[in-house]
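Notes, Module 5: Reading structure tokens.

Key idea: the token line is not a picture. It is a compressed description, and you learn to read it the same way you learned to read a sequence, by spotting repeated patterns. We will look at two proteins. The first is printed below with its tokens.
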Amino acid sequence: MPHKPRRPCSHPGCPALTDGRYCPEHQRLADRQYERCLRDPAARARYGYAWRRARARHLAAHPLCELCEEAGRLAPATTVHHRVKLADGGTHDQANLQSLCAGCHSALHLREQNRNRRHGSAG
């Protein structure tokens, strides 16, 4: 099956073609800018080296999306989700983690946002 055509990097003046938004060089710059200026400093502190190790360990032990498996589908997990948010007292403990594919992770957060709106709490 043919792939989508590659498109120019979104960084001004960069002629490189890419499958994503930025070429690898400018993606690193965009990620650094996001971390430094846009991401909440408290979130940055919670998701450091310990989180990266816990995430890698969990994905190695649970390589398939847990929600897809429950529905009888097999999909590779790309994201590790906290069942109880760190902001709400959750931890990086394996019992609090859930392996998900990108689609299930997005759907889970969308349902959570809709639930918070219905109940009038900030999410």
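Here is the second protein, with the sequence above and the tokens below, as before.
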Amino acid sequence: MNKLSLVLSVAVCAAALHACTWVKTTPEGQSVRVASAAEVNACERKGKVTVSVKSRVSGVERKPTKVASELATLARNEGALLGGDTVVAEGDVSEGRQVFGVYRCKG
């Protein structure tokens, strides 16, 4: 394999990985929604979770929207484990990490 073929192969693999979604919603997480802080005023706070995913794969920066989506999915999954039905981002995404508050809004 010559150098050009190797470089092209690596670029194709990196592009394919860039588009991948590795995080799946659990059955429990499907019942948890992502909301804004204003929507949880009357809800019971159950705790908080810090979730993280890879923001770079093979040295290639992943799309911020994809990273944020996967973080929200992880927060939903973790929120269900804490007995919550709603999660709210409590800060921005930083290096593939984000903190979410977990709330119980339904009686």
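Summary for the second protein:
- Helices lie at 3-19, 64-81.
- The chain has one domain: 3-104.
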